[in-house]
Amino acid sequence: DGDCGIGLKRGADSVLQLISSDVETTDAAIFLGRIISVIETSMDGTSGAIYAIFLNALAAGLRSQSPDSGKKEVTTEVWAKAAKQALEGLGKYTPARPGDRTLVDALEPFIEQLAATNDLKKAAQAAKQGSDATKGMKASLGRSVYVGNEGFKEVPDPGAYGLSEFLTGLAEA
After folding, report:
1. Which pTM does this prediction carry?
2. How many angstroms separate the CA atoms of 18 and 38, rounded?
3. Start and end of every DhaL domain (predicted)?
4. What is the pLDDT of residues 69-127, one digit of tens each?
5. CB-based contacts of 130, cutoff 8 Å, min separation 6
């Protein structure tokens, strides 16, 4: 219905504006907190809420995994552990699981692969595979449930696809 793409674009534009104008910080959790504030005010709908919940849990995970994150570089291993905690936190607020045709179909494989390999590129590839797997998948949660089954065979879930594209860009940066 176009709503997902509009929300993702608003969020991305707002984060880009923050990055270009924000005062730098070496503390990953503090910077993530700034991104969370932008996401909470710029992204509408369920996906905005899901991103906000996940990112808040990710920031909490970073603080618990690396309490002195402002004083040293946060390793991929710490990010992976924090992301696993965040996924568990997200699971308390949504029943979405892989196979439901939601952004979780890209998020969970990304986190699992990152935790297993500490390799951001491999994790992004896993997210893409998860997104691609939603093609033809019957939706059991999210807006796609109400839109109908037309086109599901050729098109991945919009939320999973958008997240997969973001994670691919992050891995290539």
Report:
1. 0.88
2. 8
3. 1-172
4. 556 678 899 999 999 999 999 999 999 999 999 999 999 999 999 999 999 999 999 99
5. 98, 105, 106, 107, 108, 109, 110, 160, 164
Spell out the residues 6+ positions from residue 14 whose beta carbon is closer than 8 angstroms to its own. Answer: 38, 39, 41, 42, 43
Output the 3-class SS for 80-148. Answer: HHHHHHHHHHHHCCCCCCCCCCCCHHHHHHHHHHHHHHCCHHHHHHHHHHHHHCCCCCCCCCCCHHHHC
Evaluate whether 106 touches 127 at the Cβ level (below 8 Å). yes
Q: Are 81 and 138 in contact (CB under 8 A)?
A: no
- Residue 19 DSSP one-character state: H
- Report domain extents, the chain: 1-74, 95-173
